[in-house]
UniProtKB/TrEMBL annotation:
<dbReference type="InterPro" id="IPR036962">
    <property type="entry name" value="Glyco_hydro_3_N_sf"/>
</dbReference>
<dbReference type="InterPro" id="IPR001764">
    <property type="entry name" value="Glyco_hydro_3_N"/>
</dbReference>
<dbReference type="Pfam" id="PF00933">
    <property type="entry name" value="Glyco_hydro_3"/>
</dbReference>
<dbReference type="InterPro" id="IPR017853">
    <property type="entry name" value="GH"/>
</dbReference>
<dbReference type="GO" id="GO:0004563">
    <property type="term" value="F:beta-N-acetylhexosaminidase activity"/>
</dbReference>
<dbReference type="InterPro" id="IPR050226">
    <property type="entry name" value="NagZ_Beta-hexosaminidase"/>
</dbReference>
<protein>
    <recommendedName>
        <fullName>beta-N-acetylhexosaminidase</fullName>
        <ecNumber>3.2.1.52</ecNumber>
    </recommendedName>
</protein>
<keyword id="KW-0378">Hydrolase</keyword>
<keyword id="KW-0326">Glycosidase</keyword>
<dbReference type="GO" id="GO:0005975">
    <property type="term" value="P:carbohydrate metabolic process"/>
</dbReference>
<feature type="domain" description="Glycoside hydrolase family 3 N-terminal">
    <location>
        <begin position="57"/>
        <end position="328"/>
    </location>
</feature>
<comment type="similarity">
    <text>Belongs to the glycosyl hydrolase 3 family.</text>
</comment>
<dbReference type="GO" id="GO:0009254">
    <property type="term" value="P:peptidoglycan turnover"/>
</dbReference>
């Protein structure tokens, strides 16, 4: 296997919905994959609660067995899960509970940090080392996707919660992810049909960046880009594919860590492109880690091969792939405590 091929696998971030690692995931790890996201079902995502069957099936022992298998195949990995205050907590039942958004808003920063620390200790005990939280979006208008899933409508209140969350989880030795940059204050259309847009200017988006800036100042390790198309850039394009928006994250907000996409097969992101095409476009734009849903997992080899061919054709600069690979590996190797 070539070094370029291993780098191509390393920048893919597949979702596994259960603790059973199928042949596609095991091959992915053998070929150089460095990251797994332990996801949930669509119903669990919408409800914010894990099913009774999952809670009974996924014991601490079964988590340890799965993670041991993954590490045996892939070495040090980014092992991620959601742990949201206002949405789904993937390690419900194994890590301490989090308050709902109203309770979180009423807590002192110190009290909330301690709660997040206790939750983070449980996450670390399971073996997960990165949470895809906290949500830093501010909703100011219609947004069916994030309604009730953000920390506050007030940017300063949300920023204080983000700070407490990042501090507490970091103390427990678990890394954090801010999502979904550059924010979705208003969302028209539907992500699943491809017409989801954020009809705001860049200045209007900047007005609600306080939670993102707070998280970056506290040392958040990763930032997830948004899946909708943004009218702030021309032509309007998904945040996960926008060099301009990733440039704002890097240059204006000073973020130095891992930039990941949202699910690349969100219809509003992928449009009429293939998975390989959208993966290369995300890398060219500046993303380091490419999130692929469970539906895309059977196509991991195809996506990796498309990335390799893009480098060979000169469509993707080899140095860009190498930089993304280095960022992913650095996060996989990095330990906070």
């Amino acid at each position: 296997m070539s070094e370029i091929s291993r780098q191509a696998y390393s920048v893919l971030f597949p979702v596994v919905e259960t603790l059973e690692l199928n042949e596609h995931i095991l091959r992915f790890l053998d070929q150089g994959g460095k990251s797994l996201l332990f996801g949930e079902s669509g119903e669990e995502y919408v409800s914010g609660r894990l099913s009774k069957e999952r809670l009974e099936r996924e014991t601490l022992s079964s988590w340890h067995q799965t993670i041991e298998t993954a590490v045996d195949r892939g070495g040090r990995l980014i092992l991620a899960a959601d742990a949201d205050i206002a949405a789904v907590h993937r390690l419900q039942g194994l890590a301490a509970p989090l308050p709902d958004r109203v309770a979180a808003q009423a807590l002192s920063a110190e009290a909330l940090e301690e709660i997040c620390f206790e939750m983070g200790r449980g996450v670390a005990t399971v073996g997960v080392n990165l949470v895809l939280s906290p949500t830093a979006d501010i909703v100011t208008g219609n947004n069916a996707w994030l309604a009730g899933r953000t920390l506050s409508e007030d940017p300063e209140v949300a920023a204080a919660i983000v700070r407490a969350y990042v501090r507490g989880v970091h103390r427990a030795g678990v890394k954090t992810t801010l999502k979904h940059f550059p924010g979705h204050p208003v969302l028209t259309g539907d992500l699943s049909t491809g017409d989801a847009r954020v009809p705001l200017s860049l200045n209007e988006l900047r007005a609600v960046w306080a939670p993102f800036l707070a998280g970056i100042e506290e040392g958040a390790d990763a930032v997830m880009m948004g899946p909708a198309r943004f009218d702030a850039v021309k032509p309007a394009i998904a945040g996960s594919l926008s060099a301009d928006l990733m440039g704002s994250l890097r240059q204006e907000l000073g973020f130095k860590g891992l930039v990941m996409t949202c699910d690349l097969d969100h219809k509003s992101t992928i449009g009429d492109a293939s998975l390989g095409e959208v993966a290369v476009a995300a890398l060219v734009a500046g993303a380091d880690l490419l999130l692929l849903s469970t539906k895309a997992v059977p196509h991991l080899d195809e996506v990796a091969q498309y990335i390799v061919k893009a480098v060979e054709r000169g469509v993707l600069d080899g140095s860009r792939l190498k930089a993304a690979h280095a960022q992913v590996c650095a996060q996989a190797e990095r330990r906070l405590i």
